[in-house]
Design goal:
mainly alpha, 3-stranded antiparallel beta sheet, 5 helices, 3 strands, about 5% strand, signal, DUF5329, YfeK family protein
C-alpha cells in the first residue's frame, strides 16, 4: 500500500467524524436580512421569466436557503448569494431585480449591494 493510498484511506475514515461548518449567528442575520430585503423595497424579482410577488420571491429564497443549510452548503452571506439568490438551480438562468427608477440588474449584483449596506449599518 502506497503512502498516498494510506493517506486517502485515513482521510476517508476520519472525514465523516469531522464537524461540518454552519453559518455563524452574524451570517444567519445577514442572510435573513437579504431574504427580507425584497419585502422592504419596491423592487421586483424575476425568476425563470416570471415576476412573482415579494412574498413568493421571499418564500422561494427561504426554501433554497433551508435546502442549502440541510446539505451544509452555505456558511456565509456570500455563499447564500452565490448558491441561492443568483440563479435558478433548475434552468441556470440568472435571477433579475427591477427597482423603480433604476436599470434592471442581476440579483447577484443587487443582493451584493444589499449585503454591503447591511454590513455598513451593523457594527
Amino acid at each position: 500500500m502506497t503512502h498516498r493510498t494510506r493517506s486517502v484511506l485515513a482521510l476517508a475514515l476520519i472525514a465523516p467524524g469531522l464537524a461540518l461548518a454552519a453559518p455563524t449567528d452574524s451570517a444567519r442575520r445577514e442572510i435573513a436580512g437579504l431574504i427580507g430585503a425584497l419585502d422592504g423595497s419596491n423592487c421586483r424579482f424575476q425568476r425563470n421569466g416570471s415576476w412573482p410577488d415579494a412574498a413568493e420571491a421571499r418564500a422561494h429564497l427561504q426554501r433554497k436557503y433551508d435546502y442549502l443549510l440541510k446539505k451544509d452548503k452555505v456558511d456565509t452571506a456570500e455563499q447564500f448569494i452565490e448558491r441561492a439568490a443568483s440563479q435558478s438551480s433548475m434552468s441556470g438562468k440568472p435571477y433579475r431585480i427591477a427597482c423603480p427608477g433604476q436599470p434592471e440588474q442581476t440579483a447577484a449584483v443587487w443582493f451584493g449591494a444589499r449585503l454591503t449596506a447591511l454590513r455598513q449599518r451593523t457594527p
